[in-house]
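G., the chain you wanted modeled:
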Amino acid sequence: MATKLDGKALSEKIRADLKERLHQQSNEKGLPIPFLTTMQVGEDLPSTVYIRAKQRACEEIGFGFRHYKLPEETTMDELCKAVTEVNNDPTVHGLLVQSPLPSHLDEIEVQRMVAPEKDVDCFHPENVGMLYIGRPRFQPCTAGGIIELLLAYGYDPAGKRVVIIGRSVIVGRPLALMMMLKARGGNATVTVCHSRTTDIPAITRQADILVPAVGITEMIKGDWVKEGVIVVDVGINRVPDATKKRGYRLVGDAAFNEIEPKAEAIAPVPGGVGPMTVAILTGNVMRAAGYDVGS
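Predicted structure as tokens:
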């Protein structure tokens, strides 16, 4: 039976540690209470769910939190004005503009609007560049969560063959970079597969650590992996299920029931990477407010 990489349990430990650090350092150093502002444009349901999770985590630790929900028809000029107001507010330490945005808004330009020192998602070009040279201001939230989950269970990527499926700016690219760096959680040999890669199964069978992050329901089959593989599934896909109150269940990009018997360890969906993403975000907000949150 594969070890379950329980991101929910680990994220609870991380939040408890951050809460203790907040109490101690705010008293000893007179640091301000960290404050996160989120913005959402439109009515995307998964975005609403994610923001609620972030709000709960902030409130549990003791952060300030504010959410702005803007109408679908918000223009770039209107969004820029809202972002600028938050950038200029010294009481706000972190600003997150929730993706995806409506198609008429330029996500890259929006990411550039956010002040780099408040960019707790680590999307601003300045922060991406700092990550590239190995001097990160913040951890990319999902990529950082994956690495912390692996390390917590004793699976150091150093010297391992890591295969990442997906090259998005949110997961695939930052994770590949972090795992290549000469740093904690790095020093791996990394291969990135994507939509133009030929014979992906031949590549995934070589992986010591496999990270599927494409959003295709159970794309990775049991015969795509070798015995003893470690799988960190990032995919979140909805499958209709009349037995569930919501009418659907969540599954990953990996066929869990096929892969679990062969794997040494596997992060499930849900309960694996998702909670870790929020945990890393809260750590970034504390960093932005001047706190020491450890490695």
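The chain has ten helices and eleven strands.

Shout if anything looks off.
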